[in-house]
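Notebook entry, structure prediction.
Reason for the run: the old model in the group folder had no record of what sequence produced it. Starting over properly, with the input documented here first.
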Amino acid sequence: MIVVDAHQHFWDPIRNDYGWLTPSNVQLYRRFGPENLSPLLAEAGAARTVLVQAAASESETKYLFSIAARHKFVAGVVGWVNFEAEDVDQRIAALVASSDGRLKGLRPMIQDIPDISWLAHRKLDPAFRAMIQHGLTFDALVMPRHLSLLCDRLRMHPNLRAVLDHAGKPDIAGGGYDGWAGDIERLARDTNVYCKLSGLLTQAAPREGAWLEIARTLVNRYAAGGERAVFRENAVRFYNLDEPEQGQFTPPTARAS
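New structure, fully documented this time:
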């Protein structure tokens, strides 16, 4: 089965626009580019990916466009824009125009914003309206404390295609499920939001690995028959990706960016 990876990152510390990436983070403080990902895609049977922003800058989003232009396995980019900018509609239009069709959505880094009530501010309305106008999706990078406000925001924009990143990052290691589960139930009931399972292990205890196999086991157990949807078709539909027919894929090869 061909897989579409709906959420992957590239970064290079030399850019100096990743506020979260510091030398103290020894495992991650190095360049990760297409040459690092390509062999992993081949191993997993993943032929297409969605490249997601990792820095709160339009400059990084344009950097991702340049990578996508050189690597066919990148089917789309989820970028960043300042949702609070007075000219946010023009900024979004400019990013769309410069992306050559590669910009699929936007992701404000809500989990890092000190103001927990940020999503409720009406000054963000123009940004969401512009996203709908340009057919862009909204990746919600939030923590459990944001889920109730996220539901309220999505109910304000029923035509907005939105996805919850990393299932809202429940506190798996700490057993913090109850409040999270209630908010997830409300989101499922009252909105049309999608949900990404990727990234859950970062919230779990150390030394949990083999995420793809774990995900396949869970889907087989709880959503038998839904494998094609979970591992490819939902991503293609949500992000409006081009998908060649079976047999037209060739494994991506390692190549310096």
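Summary: DSSP finds eight helices and seven strands in the chain.
The old model has been moved to the deprecated folder.
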